[in-house]
Amino acid sequence: MQKYKFVTIFHQFNILFIIKMNKFLTLLNFCILLNIYSLDIKSNNSFNDTNIYKNEIFKKEIKTLICKKSNSNLSQPIINLNSNERLSVIFDDLEGGVKDYYYTIIHCNSNWRKSNLLTIEYINGFNDIPINDFEFSFNTIQEYTHYSFEFPNNNINPIVSGNYIFKIFEKDGGVVAHARFLIIDYQVSIEAQVRKATLANNRSTSHEIDFTIHHPNINISDPFSEIKVVIKQNNQEHNTITNIKPLFIKNNSLIYDYEDENTFYANNEFRHFDTRSLRYKSERIKDIYFENNRNHIELFYDYERTSNLYSVDIDINGQFIIESQESWDSSIESDYSYVYFSLIKEISYGDIYIVGDFTNWEINNHYKLLYNNHKYETSLYLKQGYYNYAFGIVKDDGELNMKDIEGSHYETRNDYHIYVYYRPIGERYDQLIGFLKTSSKNLF
Fold first, then answer.
1. Are 75 and 87 in contact (CB under 8 A)?
2. What tens digit of pLDDT does each residue of 39-53 get?
3. Any residues with CB less than 8 A from the CB of 266 and at least 6 apart, and which?
């Protein structure tokens, strides 16, 4: 009987020991798996990447980075999901020679931060694609290598909609550039109207964008949290309107009919200069000369326009076109020149910058004008073409103000881009389900 009790106690001890060991091993395995998963997340930057991705060049020898629809110079880089549409990405390397450049894509949310998706969840195909299409400049003073690729292709395709970044990098080096593009899966339609601002104080200077989102084919449970709208003027960044909520909800429609939250200063028509010819002076060109083995172009002085009446001046709303009039292929026969800007103005606050699509609408020292002898000056090394630009003042708060130099008139003809993003409850990324480009030209 005592032997039986001893054996029973011994077995109970063994069972208890085994249970505790199993719990320990289970916990250990869980910790190991958690650690592996954490390493995988870190390697993909899925949750740790808080950078805002934008059009940006990181290598000074890289110039004229353009991302657009194929065969369409003034298009926005947005294409339909699972369509035959293509994007074209081009850039020049002023170092010349041939480099091992690659590209991949990064999926972002509506705020241009990396989404929580893993690479295999938004890419069908390979991750790192070599850029094999290149040409050497021909008959130019500035030698360069012109690189290009089209997307999507047989090697890489996006499988979900949303905001994306092209990441261009060297095989044995760092990141060279980022370029934004968008993939859309239309599930809603947008009806919009651009009008003079409703509020009396803004009627002569501002545009109001009223719009309605129609969604008969999708069930939106909570439009205040599931839908995000982004509105851009001429697709520039500094005055983007976000986080605007529907004012009314009615019959599968979301109505955004505000009087203040959806207004933009109309500003003015863009200034321009034309360097498509280096032999003949165009309207805004004061002088063209060759010095120190480089082309130089002086523009006529610019003046502030705040007190001027509105004047119709056909522009391309801040964009630019690369072209050479004396060439067969502008992509490799367009030369580079130092273009000199001078603005006659006295200010007691802030700094003055050149802004436009060719500056990526960025505020950095490269595009800052310096004060010299009663005028602000700078020079930029630019490829031949037709350029739109404007001047803006940046105060201590970091906000760009264009109207204090350019003036603001409701008659100004601007493009407005409305983007609609959708994240149903439980989803991990923002889908791009609607887009509309409209214009204040409809005012007239």
1. no
2. 344 334 444 567 999
3. 205, 206, 207, 408, 409, 410, 411, 412, 414, 440
**Distance from C-alpha of 312 to C-alpha of 269, rounded to nearest angstrom:** 8
Q: What single-letter amino acid sits at 72? A: S
3-state secondary structure 300-369: CCEECCCCCCCCCCCCCCCCEEECCCCCCCHHHHCCEEEEEEEEECCCCCCEEEEECHHHCCCCCHHHEC
| Alpha-carbon dihedral 65, 70, 71, 74, rounded to 10 degrees | -60
pLDDT at residue 26, as a whole number: 43
Kindly state the helix (H) or strand (E) to which residue 121 belongs, with its residue range: none
Distance of CA 133 to the CA centre of its chain: 24
Q: What is the pTM of this model?
A: 0.87
* DSSP three-state, residue 292: coil
Give the DSSP letter string of 27-52. HHHHHHHHHHHHHHHHHHTTTT----
Q: Is the pLDDT of residue 226 over 80?
A: yes
- Which sequence spans correspond to the domains of the chain? 1-44, 56-184, 189-266+412-443, 271-406
Give the angle 374-320-134 at the CA atoms, nearest 5°.
120
Same CATH topology for 56-184 and 189-266+412-443? yes
- Tell me the per-residue pLDDT of 351-402, one tens digit each, with 9 for 90 and over: 999 999 999 998 989 999 999 988 999 999 999 999 999 999 998 888 899 9
CA distances from 36 to 30, 31, 33, 401, 417 (A): 10, 9, 5, 49, 43
Quick one: CATH architecture of 271-406? Sandwich (2.60)
**Beta carbons within 8 Å of 110's beta carbon, 6+ residues apart:** 162, 163, 228, 230, 242, 419, 421, 430, 432
Q: 10 Å Cβ neighbour count for 238?
A: 17
Q: Could you confirm whether domain 56-184 is CATH 2.60.40?
A: yes
What DSSP state is assigned to residue 73? T
Averaged pLDDT, 176-199: 97
Pick the CATH number of 189-266+412-443 from 2.60.40.10, 3.30.70.260, 2.30.29.30, 3.40.50.720: 2.60.40.10
